[in-house]
Write a structure and sequence with these properties.
3 helices
């Protein structure tokens, strides 16, 4: 079974922007979303994927991803996906043998930027850049599936301010 081990962090600064090697706008919607599993369709540039994820702890996930025709993905986002859709730009930063995926959200989640790193094992070491802040890997509010159901702009102001406090590395 394909397992994804991913850690997610808030950011302390904009310093990462100078290290970006690639940026891609993405739109994604959920056909099904639950506490432990989700089915998502994503358009990334001119590519489209159907993705199934199941997680128990927020870090380890079973993940299945399949390329689908772009026109079918567009139809699913328009007619089947649960609103609202996720709109974000994914920026890639290469650092210490790893690729950091930095998602800058737009629309209903504007203002949220998170950095993710995929690891081969849960205890794998990695270089933690100075711009990486508080880990939110196990906080379900920061899962894309949750953000599609309860976007940042619907959070009460005190909760939003406290949740987005990046903390210290």
């Amino acid at each position: 079974m394909p397992t994804e081990i991913e850690r997610k962090f808030l950011l302390l600064s904009e310093a990462w922007r100078g290290e970006v090697t690639q940026s891609t706008r993405m739109t994604q919607g959920y056909l099904s979303r639950g506490a432990q599993s989700s089915v998502r369709v994503r358009i990334s540039g001119e590519q489209a994927q159907l993705n199934i994820k199941s997680s128990r702890d927020g870090i380890h996930r079973l993940e299945y991803e399949y390329t689908i025709p772009l026109t079918e993905a567009q139809e699913m986002l328009a007619a089947v996906a649960l609103p609202p859709l996720i709109d974000k730009t994914r920026h890639l930063v290469r650092r210490g043998g790893h690729v950091w995926e930095i998602d800058e959200f737009h629309g209903d989640n504007a203002g949220l930027i998170v950095a993710e790193i995929e690891l081969a094992t849960a205890d794998e070491g990695f270089e933690r850049p100075a711009w990486v802040g508080r880990e939110v890997s196990t906080d379900p509010r920061f899962y894309n599936s949750t953000l599609s159901e309860r976007p940042l702009n619907r959070w009460p102001e005190p909760e939003r301010a406290a949740a987005l406090q990046p903390g210290s590395a």
